[in-house]
């Protein structure tokens, strides 16, 4: 039995590093709503430069940042085109209907890509019968583990400009996408009007995300952030960890990707397991097991008793996520635990 938990549920579970804890303890702070928190100001300036935008805004979470983007870009009753299985549609509690008051026009995707011709056909202009399209949202890396290429985002940008639309990038795992594509993050965001990226997904910061765009957009978003309850006052304690996340932790994400491939290779050695290799671009390993619907809850319980945290199946698949606190030794122990479960259960 291990004396710690290995947590494979998500890369949102990462704990702050010692460097982060020390920086948080020593951080200079002020009142961010008044704009005089020096550490938040430094974070926002650095984040904007990192993604090639004029300005940035520190927000509590990725969902908050995405919904703030919709709220700022769109007028109530307008329409947003996006993938039917993207995070904004699937995992943000229907917030677009409540906060921005917009209609989501969700299109089918293949490895995170909407069909470009379908996007063109879906755009709606002024007509007494229709809501007007104002925004296209893309996601990269996609929440199914796939990364979309620069060519796709560039085509989305061309379509948007031709139709006088804006493009928002849900870049919760933007730096994972950049690591996979072997480009700087700003090479992805250059085709977008706004971008949200998380500091707490795989980068070890305890709280927070960034919304970036041009100065006019961020000025509007700052006031709407206050409306949404996102004025965080002495937020420099959190921003201090965010600075380390962006300056240091973004540079090591390829290690998590390598560990994910190692995990996938080891899983495939077990009879009855099929790994989704088509979506193994970043730090997520999706796989199916024979009779998974029958034993999903039992697996979660067995792993928890072995000091490993995992989620149950969703849509017939299990997902293991690697991150800073998951080593190759942890992966070996995980594989051993899974083999033990299968041998004892007779599956």
Automatic annotation (TrEMBL):
Top EC class of this enzyme: lyase
The protein's required cofactors: pyridoxal 5'-phosphate
One Pfam family matching this protein: Beta_elim_lyase
Protein name per the record: Low-specificity L-threonine aldolase
Source taxon at top rank: Bacteria
UniProt cross-references to CDD domains, sorted A to Z: TA_like
Gene3D superfamilies: Aspartate Aminotransferase, domain 1 (3.90.1150.10), Type I PLP-dependent aspartate aminotransferase-like (Major domain) (3.40.640.10)
Keyword Ion transport: no
Aromatic amino acid beta-eliminating lyase/threonine aldolase domain: residues covered: 7-288
Signal peptide: none
InterPro entries per the UniProt record, alphabetical: ArAA_b-elim_lyase/Thr_aldolase (IPR001597), Low_specificity_L-TA-like (IPR023603), PyrdxlP-dep_Trfase (IPR015424), PyrdxlP-dep_Trfase_major (IPR015421), PyrdxlP-dep_Trfase_small (IPR015422)
Listed EC numbers: 4.1.2.48
Entry keyword set: Lyase, Pyridoxal phosphate
GO MF annotations in UniProt: lyase activity
Taxonomy of the source species: Bacteria, Bacillati, Bacillota, Clostridia, Eubacteriales
Protein family: Belongs to the threonine aldolase family.
NCBIfam families hit by this protein: GntG_guanitoxin, PRK10534.1
């Amino acid at each position: 039995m291990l004396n710690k938990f290995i947590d494979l549920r998500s890369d949102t579970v990462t704990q702050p590093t010692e460097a982060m804890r020390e920086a948080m303890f020593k951080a200079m702070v002020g009142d961010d709503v008044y704009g005089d928190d020096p550490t938040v100001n430094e974070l926002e300036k650095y984040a904007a430069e990192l993604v090639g935008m004029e300005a940035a805004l520190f927000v509590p979470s990725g969902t908050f940042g995405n919904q703030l983007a919709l709220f700022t870009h769109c007028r109530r009753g307008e329409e947003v085109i996006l993938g039917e299985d993207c995070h904004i549609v699937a995992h943000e509690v229907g917030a677009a209907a409540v906060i921005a008051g917009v209609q989501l026009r969700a299109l089918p995707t293949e490895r995170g890509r909407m069909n470009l011709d379908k996007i063109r056909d879906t755009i709606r202009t002024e007509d007494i019968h229709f809501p007007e399209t104002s925004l296209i949202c893309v996601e990269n890396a996609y929440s199914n583990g796939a990364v979309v290429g620069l060519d796709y985002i560039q085509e989305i940008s061309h379509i948007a400009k031709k139709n006088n639309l804006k493009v928002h990038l849900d870049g919760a795992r933007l730096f994972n996408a950049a690591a996979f594509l072997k480009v700087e993050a700003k090479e992805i965001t250059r085709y977008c009007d706004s971008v949200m990226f998380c500091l707490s997904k795989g980068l070890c910061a305890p709280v927070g995300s960034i919304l970036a765009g041009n100065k006019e957009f961020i000025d509007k978003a700052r006031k709407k952030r206050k409306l949404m309850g996102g004025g965080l006052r002495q937020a420099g304690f959190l921003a201090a960890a965010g600075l380390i996340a962006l300056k240091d932790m973004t540079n090591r994400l390829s290690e998590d990707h390598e560990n994910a491939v190692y995990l996938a290779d080891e899983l495939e050695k077990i009879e009855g397991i099929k790994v989704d290799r088509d979506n193994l671009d970043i730090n997520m390993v999706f796989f199916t097991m024979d009779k998974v619907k029958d034993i999903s809850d039992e697996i979660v319980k067995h792993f928890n008793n072995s000091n490993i945290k995992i989620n149950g199946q969703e849509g017939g698949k299990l997902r293991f996520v690697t991150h800073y606190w998951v080593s190759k030794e942890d992966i070996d122990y995980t594989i051993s635990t899974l083999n033990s479960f299968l041998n004892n259960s007779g599956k």
